[in-house]
Design brief:
This protein is of the alpha/beta class and 223 residues long. It contains six helices and ten strands. It has a six-stranded mixed β-sheet, sandwiched between helices. The longest helix has 18 residues.
Length: 223
């Protein structure tokens, strides 16, 4: 699935002042491509991903994912579209501590009412693809940071989304675990033809991405 942004801006009201986080961003991400967004903290990367996911709405401009124009969809349509077609990977893992690894990965399938037998099979396959076979009954607190992020990858990919959005997925990891997470995510998305947009501060991502864009003060420049 391709992603197109045209003239996208985002402004927040802070007290009596307006803060513009994104300024007239236009970009097209082709279906099945891996695009990396480089930039320092506060440059607008996370805001851009949130807009692509439909978590937030732009102040100006248009965003299209495949055939869906986010601005023309209501909250219910955006929510269902996100559940079915988007996988999101967070820097802080965002695993539910009271659920086991398998239960965490099962969540997207549960929201889509996938039959439990099929869902359990897909969860097992997703964990195996991340090198986590046998971890299903463990709880997040029993895992290392790298293992937790691989669980988060399995959760983001288990429902076979068309688009994966990753917000600093290696930010809390050491170099070895960061490289493993990027390689697993890159390989999984390419094998399945998923579009991947990753926000990161690491320039090592250039060796994996099809295209690198850099964010500076809310604007995109060639990376």
């Amino acid at each position: 699935m391709d992603i197109a942004l045209e003239g996208v801006s985002k402004t927040y009201l802070s007290g009596q002042q307006q803060q513009t986080v994104l300024r007239d961003v236009s970009v097209h991400v082709g279906s099945g491509r891996f695009v990396a967004l480089l930039g320092r903290s506060g440059s607008g990367k996370s805001t851009l991903l949130n807009l692509m996911a439909g978590f937030d709405a732009p102040t100006a401009g248009h965003i299209r994912l495949g055939d869906l124009s986010l601005g023309k969809a209501d909250d219910r349509e955006r929510t269902f579209f996100r559940r079915r077609h988007i996988g999101f990977v967070f820097q802080a893992f965002n695993l539910l501590p009271t659920l086991t690894v398998s239960e965490n990965v099962l969540l997207p399938l549960d929201l889509l009412d996938v039959p439990i037998t099929d869902a359990r099979s897909r969860v097992a396959a997703a964990l195996d693809s991340m090198g986590l076979s046998g971890y299903g009954d463990r709880f997040p607190e029993e895992l290392s940071g790298g293992e937790q992020q691989r669980v988060a990858l399995a959760r983001a990919l288990v429902h076979q989304p068309a688009v994966v959005l990753a917000d600093e997925p290696t930010g809390n990891l050491d170099l070895a675990n960061a490289r493993q997470v990027v390689e697993l995510l890159n390989s999984a998305c390419r094998d399945a033809g998923m579009t991947l947009v990753m926000a990161t501060h690491s320039r090592e991502i250039k060796q994996y991405a099809d295209e690198v864009l850099e964010m500076r003060d809310g604007q995109l420049v060639a990376g």
